[in-house]
Write a structure and sequence with these properties.
By secondary structure, the protein is of the alpha/beta class. A hairpin with a 5-residue loop joins strand 21 (442-443) and strand 22 (449-450). Helix 2 (29-36) packs across helix 4 (84-98), helix 11 packs antiparallel against helix 12 and helix 16 (516-526) crosses helix 19 (583-600).
Length: 665
């Protein structure tokens, strides 16, 4: 080898070593995606490598996911077809190319995870040479390359449904992509939300972990994506008016003036224009071509550094996709249907186009209104108006809650006490503590001593323990009933004795059905009575001090119109927010059900205090030793009427003991 050739070889070796050890520059996610994320014609109206000039509002949310950005969580709340999934795909392409690691992509069901893999992930791998080389042959039978699990050098991507606890908790991950978070179940097998479970798998990666959460919102007060948005810096996209140059947020309705910004003549949605809040000029849809590229994200809480949250509506979608005219047409159709009482189209527009949570219309009990009826406690003696006392009990997995209710003439009611027993219902001491509540004595102002005459215990949780408690000897005279709430048009208290399938024996499986919708309709009426007297519910301040969220629990549900299996409109009660506590609301209903059980047994609560005109008024109350309760018995079949002109059948003399069966024939 000549000296010249030796010099060239050494230089080449030196350059190769320098290149190998050189630290590669980290590029923003959007830059990597524009080179490697190909939008396939099978799902994109504009196939080709993603162009962030067409979706300028997606660039910053994507770039905040770059490896060298301090932000750890990016939240994007937006409409359908607004580019939410594109952000996730761009993030994934950047991970594979320049910052590999284990990835968990979470959809609401396993079926959707499989569909995403086939319709999006496989196609983006197929259409870019770099991704295709890194992932390998998608058609191979390699166990490392399946529909919902794919590997690449330095990492892998696993797709799971949100209902799969095992899929969410079985692996350590660096990156999490939560797709359509509001479609996930709020509580996955009582283990927590799918978002929290997925993020819990990132602990070992510390500051290197990144999470993307995207979704359109659903129900007001029960939206995971809105909750995460509010935890972040809350950025909105501001765009300049082409005429006056002033920046503004594109909003469906002005928050301050309540005026609509997108307007059109009645019956002519094709003439829809967006009116600038500064100069008042009506803007046409095509003018977004100049507005969007000049737009910018402005956070309302810039001091929040670790969670970057973004929010837009369909008003921002690029020209050529869903237009302002399309929005006007959809709104007209939704409002026309709303006049008939149907809410489906209206809710779809609010959720998927305006990207806002939907408040289910219905009867709502307002906690602030209830606060006006809170009155000073009565002291050691309860009011003379109390004629009888009942108890409603709600059983949870880790506690028992009980409401003590006093009731008087005309169904005027006093909430006498509210107790929470923080003890596992599997423990005997829990029920011993409940005994003390059920057997408590209350002295009226006139000196009369009252005890609870009936108690309803919900058997939805710890069912067998409730049955054992209700029908254990020694409690028979206390009128303790195991109950089960049943929806639909049913009586508030069904006197028919019921038995759970498979339960045998006198003390096991016996319960009474309570019409919960009927009970809640009844409570709604009582809580709307504003004057002392019949139907009024008194709430003392000592209950509020003991349970600060008591009024919130009483207003935790709303009456809404739904459809049954046959498509008929029915009214039912639903929680306003899935995570809201409602034990006070339930126990009040159970206590009122207990009152109705007493009414069927002869208790009179008429305004006049008697059952018949001219009857002697007799106050029916419970003394210190209430009458003994009989155990529930099966209903006796009615005897058919005897035909006219026939004689009653003769009774057969009893068979002597030991010779045949005993009893009457």
């Amino acid at each position: 080898m000549t000296p010249l050739e030796w010099t060239d070889s050494a230089r080449s070796l030196r350059d190769s070593l320098a290149s190998a050890w050189q630290i590669r520059a980290i590029e923003p996610v959007s830059v990597v995606a524009q080179r490697h994320l190909y939008l396939s014609p099978e799902y994109s109206a504009t196939p080709g490598y993603v162009d962030f000039e067409r979706y300028p509002y997606l660039r910053e949310p994507a770039d905040r996911l770059s490896p060298d950005d301090a932000c750890r969580t990016v939240v994007f709340l937006g409409p359908i077809q607004g580019g939410k999934t594109i952000i996730g795909q761009a993030f994934l392409s950047s991970i594979v190319v320049q910052a590999p690691g284990p990835v968990l992509w979470v959809t609401d069901t396993d079926g959707k995870a499989e569909g995403f893999s086939k319709k999006r992930l496989d196609l983006m791998i197929r259409d870019d040479p770099t991704l295709r080389d890194l992932f390998g042959d998608a058609k191979s039978r390699n166990k490392d390359n399946t529909i919902k699990f794919k590997t690449f050098p330095g990492g892998d991507v696993k797709l799971v449904g949100a209902q799969s606890v095992t899929g969410l908790t079985s692996d350590t991950i660096r990156y999490a992509i939560i797709d359509e978070a509001d479609d996930h179940r709020a509580n996955v097998s009582y283990a927590g939300s799918s978002t929290e479970l997925a993020m819990g798998r990132q602990t070992s990666y510390g500051q290197l972990a990144k999470t993307l959460i995207v979704s359109s919102p659903k129900i007001k007060g029960d939206s995971d994506i809105e909750s995460w948005f509010l935890r972040g810096n809350q950025a909105f996209f501001w765009v300049p008016c082409p005429y006056c140059g002033e920046f503004q947020r594109l909003t469906w309705r002005d928050e301050a003036t309540k005026e609509y910004r997108l307007l059109w003549p009645r019956g002519h949605p094709e003439e829809a224009r967006y009116f600038c809040e500064h100069c008042g000029v009506g803007l046409e849809d095509h003018e977004k071509n100049t507005m969007l590229p000049a737009g910018e994200w402005r956070p309302e809480h810039p001091d929040v550094a670790d969670i970057a949250s973004y929010r837009i509506s369909a008003l921002y979608l690029p020209v050529g996709s869903y237009s302002w005219v399309d929005m006007a047409r959809q709104w007209d159709a939704a409002t026309a249907e709303l006049k008939t009482g149907a809410t489906d189209k209206h809710r779809t527009f609010i959720n998927t186009r305006l990207a806002e949570t939907y408040e289910v219309p219905g009867d709502v009990i307002d906690a602030h209104t209830l606060s006006r009826r809170v009155e000073p406690s009565w002291g050691a003696a309860i009011p003379n108006g109390v004629r009888s006392i009942t108890v409603g009990v709600d059983v949870q997995d880790d506690r028992v809650e009980a409401l003590v209710l006093g009731v008087g003439l005309g169904f005027e009611m006093w909430i006498l006490d509210y107790r929470i027993i923080l003890s596992d219902p599997l423990a005997a001491e829990t029920w011993a503590s409940l005994d003390k509540i059920v057997r408590s004595s209350y002295t009226r102002e006139d000196g009369k001593v009252l005890r609870p005459r009936a108690t309803c215990v919900d058997s939805g949780h710890r069912t067998q323990q409730v049955y054992d408690y209700a029908y254990t000897r020694g409690r028979g005279g206390w009128r303790v009933y195991a109950i089960k709430g049943v929806g639909g048009k049913r009586p508030l208290w069904d006197k028919k004795v019921r038995r759970s399938p498979g339960k045998r024996g006198r003390k096991h499986g016996i319960f009474y059905a309570v019409g919960v919708d009927t009970a809640k309709d009844t409570m709604r009426g009582y809580l709307r009575v504003h004057q002392h007297g019949p139907g009024y519910v008194h709430i003392p301040d000592h209950v509020i001090k003991a349970v600060p969220d008591f009024l919130d629990q009483l207003s935790s549900e709303k009456r809404v119109k739904t459809r049954d299996k046959k498509g008929r409109d029915v009214w039912t009660w639903q929680k306003i927010a899935e995570a809201a506590r409602n034990e006070a609301w339930d126990t009040l209903g159970y206590a009122i059900a207990a009152v109705h059980s007493l009414i069927l047994g002869g208790l009179r609560l008429g305004a006049g205090g008697s059952a018949r005109p001219g009857a002697k008024k007799k106050e029916k109350t419970a003394d210190v030793t209430p009458p003994r309760q009989e155990y529930p018995r099966a209903d006796v079949a009615p005897v058919p009427p005897r035909p006219a002109g026939t004689s009653p059948p003769r009774r057969r003399a009893p068979t002597p003991k030991g010779r045949g069966r005993s009893g009457w024939g």
